Amino acid sequence: MTTQGQIAGDAGGDVEPWEPRRIIRAIEGREARLANGFLRCHPERWLPGFPERWAPLISVLGYELRVSEVKPTLVLPDDSWMCFRGTIENEGLLVAVEPHTAQVLAEEIVPHVRPGLRSALIVDYLVQRFMAVLGMSQTVSETAGGLVFNGRCTAQDVPVVASVRLSFSLNSAPCTVVVALGQELLERMDRLWRRQVHSSARSSADGGTLRFELAQLGVPPNLLSEYVTKGTVIDLEVPVSDALTLRTGSKVFMPARMVEIDGMLGCQTVQGIAPTLSIVEGASRLSIEMFSMAADTNVLAELAQVGAVFNTGRPIGDRVVLSINQERVAEARLSVYQGRYAVEVL
To answer: CB within 10 Å: which end of the chain, N or C, has fewer?
Structure first.
């Protein structure tokens, strides 16, 4: 992509204020806090041997079971689900079976079973076995096998705050079971995952200045003074959107989207390739940045996960910085010009 941006001249009344909340998605503070740890974790990695322990029963019954997804989530089951309480290290844990799944399990295990006591006993047995295998396999708790089955309950009986959603198929029938967690177990999983992410980062990697770049222009040196003169309006030739490019120094780090976190500016990394700028020989790279800060290797390692979130702690506003070779040269006001981003140098 090649863009020089254009000085908008007498744009005047065509320049409109930037309205961030029309394009920026809001994220709750709690979701943002867990986004780089628990919500990015792979719970199955803490359950070595779980499939092998469960496989004999499936084999004896002659059924086909395939796991399609194991996903951490903040969505909790409600009282329409069939719920069972467990205890791990004195903290409550909830295993909830989606209503359709309970019916599928009962009918597949005992064909033509009627709703009622027999179907309930089948699901009870399967959940009790599930908890037993979960307890023997898990490595999150300091106590191996420390998960106790306490029996039926309602979704309101156990103070849970997050969950792991298990989606699978039994003989091609889609099923969903949720393991809902208390605050202590949630925090432990969050810490463990972050620690694993930090340790897996290259030890030789350096931190640096993390930049939230909105656009980058290639400007001929003889025009630079005009571009940074107070009152100049520059059409960035970039459509208005929530897209950002995260940079460390001059290098592209990750593509991202702007987000709002309790009124503060943040970003969430996304899948894809950030746009690159090809400039003519001799032109200067003028970067338009929403925010910049010093970031250590742990921050960068967390943000390298697609879906990770960073909270700048700065209220959302229309002020941006213009920099050349990572040196600040001017401050500007972000605005909109004919559906594209523009800045007015202050």
So the answer is: N
Q: At which of 171, 199, 227 does a domain end?
A: 199
57 and 156 together in one domain? yes
Specify the range with the lowest mean pLDDT, choosing from 102-106, 158-162, 311-315.
102-106
| Residue 90 sits in the same domain as residue 175 | yes
Query: How many structural domains is the chain composed of?
Result: 2
* Among 281, 286, 293, 291, CA closest to 315: 291
Give residue-wise pLDDT tens across range 253-274: 999 999 999 999 999 999 988 7
Q: Which residues contact 102 (CB under 8 A, 6 or more apart)?
A: 82, 119, 123
CATH code for the domain of 150: 3.40.1550.10
Give residue-wise pLDDT tens across range 147-165.
889 999 999 999 999 999 9
Q: Is residue 316 part of a domain?
A: yes
Identify the domain containing residue 324 by its residue range. Answer: 6-35+206-345
Domain match, 30 and 45 both: no
- pTM for the predicted model, two decimal places: 0.88
- Rounded to whole angstroms, the maximal C-alpha distance in the chain is 84
32-91 pLDDT, tens digit per residue, is 999 999 999 999 999 888 878 877 777 777 778 888 999 999 999 998 999 999 998 889
